[in-house]
Amino acid sequence: MLNAVVKFVTKPLGFAQLRYASQGLPQLSSEKYNMSRKSFGSVESSDVNFFKSILGDDRVLTDEGDVQPYNVDWLQHCRGQSKVVLKPKTTQEVSKILSYCNQKKLAVCPQGGNTGLVGGSVPVFDEIVLHLGLMNKVLSLDEISGVLLCESGCILENLDSHAREHNFIMPLDLGAKGSCHIGGNVSTNAGGLRLLRYGNLHGSLLGIEAVKADGTIIDCLGTLKKDNTGYHLKHLFVGSEGTLGVVTKVAIHCPIMPKAVTLGYFGVESFENVLRLLKAAKLSLGEILSAFEMADFDAITTTTKNFKISNPISDYPFYVLIETHGSHEGHDSEKLNQFLEEQMASGLILDGTIASEPAKIQSIWGLRESIPSAGLRDGYVFKYDVSLPLQHFYRLVPQLRAKLGDRASVVYGYGHVGDGNIHINLTVPEYTKEIHSELEPYIFEEVSKLKGSISAEHGIGFSKRNYVQYSKDQSALHLMRELKQLMDPNGILNPYKVLPEVK
Ligand SMILES: Cc1cc2nc3c(=O)[nH]c(=O)nc-3n(C[C@H](O)[C@H](O)[C@H](O)COP(=O)(O)OP(=O)(O)OC[C@H]3O[C@@H](n4cnc5c(N)ncnc54)[C@H](O)[C@@H]3O)c2cc1C
User: Fold this and answer.
1) Nearest CA to ligand 1 atom 11
2) Ligand 1 within 6 A of CB of 110
3) Residue 455 near ligand 1, beta carbon < 6 Å
4) In the chain, what are the domain boundaries?
């Protein structure tokens, strides 16, 4: 067991903040969505003094310029009005802060890397931002079991690098890995690029430490793979988006680092053929298949155009990215090459390239991982992240193109087809309420009719809170409200998020 505490250097500004610094301020969320502030307390100078007595002057931000980046989300769709950012370094500090805020009825917005795409990580009004970025220590990594114990503010990419030094990898990977925190990943139940192979966080999260709204520290930081003793409380925090507690530490099971990684990138004629290829890949690559991603022509073209990067193959209506994680490079690349030959002969693959050199693999993944931010250069992007039964997976994209016509600059679909999760991006020159109300609830109604989920992996946050009923029955919503009442009776933790507004 490695017990040395590894502390990562926190990046002073996440890429969200860098983007924000170079662009104008988005409209205040409270105005954009015509919201009323709930009757929480307002932060006064005596409160600031109390926070300084716990954290010291330098970990309590109150200057407008210092606080502003924490008020704006990555997409620049939401802007809050917080006046205070607190940066705890220990669980005890989080506990003292929450206990105080609960007594004073001061609302709090927990924030990790601020890469969330549903407005959950930024305040709506003047909630205090509780930024977890300084809780960034790895506490241990068990060399045999692969159990990693760390604080919640560790950046995912740093954890992955640390795990790789010991022949493990993190069980999840996403485009925002350079900024998102493991605590944010757990709190959103992030999925990502390799869920197909390594499963979701409900499976790999072994233990959790969290602080309730009243400051009580809940220690469920077990490291066992099997533990059926009572209610599985850790799962309450997975995907609760900062509304039930603040995650302070996690224990995660890390898979062994694959000895061989091979990546194929293929051009495909139709979406029907993408699905046929998925089935063929499962049959032929079975135990080594680690990712199966798709992107349509417009997704790739927008990305290559806006980031001036090249597409390694010519133009096709659809692209598929297939990755394998295995233990024998010769065996795996032979398997993938044979797959390519067979599927070119069958006509499912029109053209393709296969890579096993790290630089080429990285550049193809780089193209895929740049898709989420590509559209932001062209205007305002409406983003939807839905799960759909595979036969309906791509259906909404042409439907939305027809609905918006030339009012949209571009509409495209991409995502984790292996998990039934499509991301649909619609870029318009600028935000208008008219287009917004044409898209919502229309998209959620369509998803619900097709028996899909209105949020596959990004969560509900602020943007989708009034649409949860399209994916959750009234009985489930009622239980969610009861849990919120039990865990946070004053409602101070991330108000205006996840649960629908009570009219
Ligand atoms: C380019 C890009 C690619 C992305 N790709 C994917 C993807 O493939 N799969 C995917 O699932 N998501 C993806 N996302 C969305 C986002 O990165 C994830 O939701 C991520 O898990 C958020 O982590 P974060 O640390 O940035 O959390 P934040 O954005 O800071 O917060 C997200 C939510 O979690 C809460 N929270 C954060 N930390 C804590 C904590 N310690 N305790 C309690 N609550 C907390 C916040 O209050 C908020 O409600 C992507 C985002 C971007 C920008």
Assistant:
1) 190
2) yes
3) no
4) 1-16+45-257, 260-370, 378-459
What's the CA-to-centroid distance between 430 and ligand 1, angstroms? 25
Contact in structure between 319 and 265 (CB atoms under 8 Å): yes
Question: Which phi and psi angles does 333 have, rounded to 5°?
Answer: -70, -30
> In terms of C-beta density within 10 A (0-12 exposed, 13-18 middle, 19 or more buried), how is residue 286 classed?
exposed
Considering only the top CATH level, what class is 1-16+45-257? alpha beta
494 CA closest ligand 1 atom index = 47
Cα 477–481–485 angle (5° rounding)?
170
Index of the ligand 1 atom closest to the CA of residue 210:
42
The CATH code belonging to domain 378-459 is: 3.30.70.2740
- 387 Cβ below 6 A of ligand 1: no
Asked whether 375 lines ligand 1 (CB < 6 A), one says: no
Q: What share of the chain is helix, strand, coil (3-state, %, to 5)?
A: 40, 20, 40
Whether 189 is in the pocket of ligand 1, judged by its Cβ within 6 Å, is no
240 within ligand 1 shell (Cβ under 6 A): no
**Tokens standing for residue 12:** 């002073």
Q: Is the bond into 441 cis (omega within 30 degrees of 0)?
A: yes
Any ligand 1 atom below 6 A from CB of 119: no
Any residues with CB less than 8 A from the CB of 245 and at least 6 apart, and which? 210, 211, 212, 213, 218, 236, 237, 487, 488, 493
State the Cα–Cα distance between residues 462 and 82, nearest whole angstrom. Answer: 16
For residue 121 and ligand 1, the question of a CB distance below 6 A is answered with yes
Q: How far does the centroid of ligand 1 lie from the alpha carbon of residue 337, in Å? A: 36
Assign domain 260-370 one CATH number from 3.30.70.2190, 3.90.1150.10, 3.40.50.20, 3.40.50.720.
3.30.70.2190
pLDDT tens for the chain, 503 residues: list them.
444 455 443 333 334 444 444 458 999 999 999 999 999 999 999 999 999 999 999 999 999 999 999 999 999 999 999 999 999 999 999 999 999 999 999 999 999 999 999 999 999 999 999 999 999 999 999 999 999 999 999 999 999 999 999 999 999 999 999 999 999 999 999 999 999 999 999 999 999 999 999 999 999 999 999 999 999 999 999 999 999 999 999 999 999 999 999 999 999 999 999 999 999 999 999 899 999 999 999 999 999 999 999 999 999 999 999 999 999 888 888 888 899 999 999 999 999 999 999 999 999 999 999 999 999 999 999 999 999 999 999 999 999 999 999 999 999 999 999 999 999 999 999 999 999 999 999 999 999 999 999 999 999 999 999 999 999 999 999 999 999 999 999 999 999 999 998 87
Binding site membership of 183 for ligand 1 (Cβ less than 6 Å): yes
Ligand 1 centroid from CA 59, angstroms: 22
